[in-house]
Amino acid sequence: MDAVIQINQISKAYKGTETIKNVSMRINRGEIYGFLGPNGAGKTTVMKMILNLVKPSSGEIQVFNQRIQPSSVQYLKRIGSIIEYPVFYDRLTAEANLELHCRYMDYRNKPAIQEALEIVGLHGVGKKKIHEFSLGMKQRLGIARALVTKPDILILDEPINGLDPIGIKEMRELLLLLKENYGTTILISSHIVSEIESVADAIGIIHQGTLLKEVRLEDIRRQHAGSLEDYFIHLIHGGKRYA
Question: Which residue ranges does the record assign to the ABC transporter domain (predicted)?
């Protein structure tokens, strides 16, 4: 399979403490890669390094078969992302926020704004100002902003945070739609095992900055009795139940 993101032995140290330790990952074109680990495991830091927001202390990252240098920016036009909590201009409307993002990305396709709002279930609220949005609506708008430019890759850090059960179900359906209808490659992080299991083709399990396992979901189901949650518990907690 064709890898669109290849991470080779990256590490990151802050003030002499290594927080990411020799992580290697392969994310294939057109797949959903579930990046799974407890809070604080290092998922966000790895995602920030892919986006060049944080520089690795060692190792290398290749995106679209090109090594990412400290000054690399051009490749980011082909990536949509949400890292941590999405931030907007609160006194502007949803549409205005998306328009600003499109201008920043030099993307000129105005109908794409309404299309993105509809895809994430925000049809009819484009004229509403962000300070009137609920937490769940802001999370949906963050997804709309990530996909409005029709990127080849989506990087989504805990995208179901703030969503109610209906919103989580709709997010799951959206991710599968983007993969199946548009061929979008998706890297999604979460600490909720069941949500990763419901959408992912491949899984990377990280704990305390170390990638414990990279495996295809179909191989877990074929080779190991039980669910992904059981497998996750075994790796992280040595058999103790994951809460």
Answer: 5-233
